[in-house]
Design a protein that fits this description.
277 residues, alpha/beta, TIM Barrel
């Protein structure tokens, strides 16, 4: 049975310590959450006691991954939207550094909405150049995307360019989503080794810090973002396990984002623990 961190996305509605208790109740040793409303801008108030309880749990578990809200678009064609992304990210990261140091923060690179990828990459780099120098202990992760619409970050080339161009990139990394990359045209199912070879060549496996593990409701290269429960999609459980057991990534934390309730997550966590090295 694997000892690597495995958990799922949890709600912060009942507080931070409550998420730790929920994770423990389903066998999780890490978890992901939204600090800021995923469709808005309001954040859950943190009490010192609540944060301290979670930090105690983190002494033998973790890391936790804070997911930026979906409303962030660092490469919007509207300056007000880009400023919103900057301010929310800066606030989230300040809270993570203060209350939950040495953990992870994940965000979607955004959509260029017709401006083109080149302009979008410059905007993302500009935002990160402003935000990252103030970060003291949180690793900030770009998420691999499926490529729907005008999404940026569906190719390893694009993510690698951002990493190369950001001035202060020591705390910058990548969160790889299994559904997203398969939908974007990276054949995790039939060529997992080649996929990681390409990631290493274009980005560097030392930059890979976390994994979103999801099956894909849609076929290979569909460029859709449709998560499925493990073993109920076009990837299949066995192929996901084969990929996750690659020695180069077999210690990375796993965060499930499958369409599940707590009982469903508990079952998937048990399945993964039994199958992973």
């Amino acid at each position: 049975m694997t000892s690597r961190p495995i958990g799922c996305h949890l709600s912060v509605a009942n507080g931070y310590a409550a998420m730790a208790r929920a994770a423990e109740s389903i066998g999780g040793t890490c978890f992901q959450f939204f600090m800021t409303n995923p469709r808005g801008s309001r954040s859950k108030t943190i009490s010192a006691r609540d944060a301290a309880e979670l930090r105690t749990w983190l002494g033998s578990n973790g890391p936790i991954l804070c997911h930026a809200p979906y409303t962030l678009n660092p490469c919007s064609d509207k300056e007000s939207v880009r400023e919103f992304a900057r301010s929310v990210m800066a606030r989230d990261l300040s809270i993570m550094d203060e209350f939950f140091p040495d953990n992870l923060y994940n965000f979607h690179p955004g959509c260029h909405v017709g401006q083109g990828t080149s302009e979008a990459l410059s905007m993302i780099v500009s935002l990160l150049d402003e935000v990252l120098p103030k970060v003291t202990s949180t690793d900030v992760l770009l998420e691999t995307m499926s490529g729907k619409g005008t999404e940026v970050g569906s190719s390893f080339q694009e993510l690698g360019e951002i990493l190369r161009r950001v001035s202060n990139s020591a705390r910058l990394g990548v969160c790889l989503d299994t559904c997203h990359i398969y939908s974007a045209g990276y054949d995790l199912k039939n060529a997992p080794t080649a996929l990681l070879d390409e990631f290493d060549r274009l980005i560097g496996l030392d930059r890979l810090k976390a994994l979103h593990v999801n099956d894909s409701l849609t076929p290979f290269a569909s460029r859709k973002d449709r998560h499925a429960k493990l073993g109920e999609g076009s990837l299949g459980f066995e192929k996901l396990v084969e990929f996750l057991n690659d020695p180069r990534i077999c210690r990375l934390p796993i965060y499930l984002e499958t369409p599940n309730d707590l009982d469903g997550y508990a079952q998937e966590i048990r399945q993964l623990k039994a199958a992973l090295i």
